[in-house]
């Protein structure tokens, strides 16, 4: 499988948030390695914990910025964050139920790629553009 790379166009002009987004790309690439190398369930357990930690810190920081800047789609953005947390928990539960490991890993990979493209590169880009326009005025 091919690896994802950070591109400067992904930036939301906040170094803290950008570094966390880069970590999602690293997590996706690590998951690709785990699938290719047939790594154990332990890797996915660690990944789940890392994603929970990411969500907690990242979403808090991001939502604070959106609130401070009166971003009009904050509620929608928060719902997307909630859906991320819920989906990660659902996938973790599949491991706990001993569902086929490779299937769950592939579902996780698909979800994280979708999150990157639909949320980070679309929804986050929208708030970055909003804040940038606001600060230009």
Topology overview:
Elements: H1 15-37, H2 41-68, H3 74-96, H4 101-136
Helix pairs in contact: 1-2, 1-4, 2-3, 3-4
Description of the molecule:
The chain is 80% helix and 0% strand. It has one domain: Up-down Bundle (Four Helix Bundle (Hemerythrin (Met), subunit A)), CATH 1.20.120. With 137 residues, the chain is an all-alpha fold. The N and C termini lie far apart (45 Å). The relative contact order is 0.15. Helix 1 (15-37) runs antiparallel to helix 2, helix 2 (41-68) packs antiparallel against helix 3 (74-96) and helix 3 runs antiparallel to helix 4. It is built from four helices and no strands.
State the gist of this model:
The protein has helices spanning 15-37, 41-68, 74-96, 101-136. It is mainly α and 137 residues long. It has a single domain, classed as Hemerythrin-like (Four Helix Bundle (Hemerythrin (Met), subunit A), Up-down Bundle).
| Largest sheet descriptor | none
Class by helix and strand content?
mainly alpha
Per CATH, the superfamily is: Hemerythrin-like
Helix content: over 70%
Gyration radius from CA atoms, angstroms = 16 Å
Tally of helical runs: 4
CATH fold annotation: Four Helix Bundle (Hemerythrin (Met), subunit A)
CATH class: Mainly Alpha
Oligomer: single chain
Distance between the termini: 45 Å
Domain tally: 1
Return the average pLDDT rounded to an integer.
90
Number of strands: 0
Beta-strand fraction estimate: under 5%
CATH architecture: Up-down Bundle
């Amino acid at each position: 499988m091919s690896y994802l790379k950070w591109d400067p166009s992904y930036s939301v002009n906040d170094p803290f948030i950008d570094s966390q987004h880069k970590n999602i790309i690293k997590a996706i690439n690590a998951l690709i390695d785990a699938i290719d190398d047939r790594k154990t369930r332990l890797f996915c357990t660690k990944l789940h914990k890392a994603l929970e930690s990411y969500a907690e810190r990242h979403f808090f920081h991001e939502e604070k910025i959106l609130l401070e800047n009166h971003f009009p789609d904050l509620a929608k953005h928060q719902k997307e964050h909630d859906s991320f947390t819920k989906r990660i928990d659902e996938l973790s539960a599949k491991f706990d139920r001993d569902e086929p490991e490779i299937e769950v890993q592939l579902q996780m990979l698909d979800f994280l790629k979708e999150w990157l493209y639909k949320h980070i590169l679309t929804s986050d880009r929208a708030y970055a553009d909003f804040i940038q326009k606001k600060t230009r005025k």
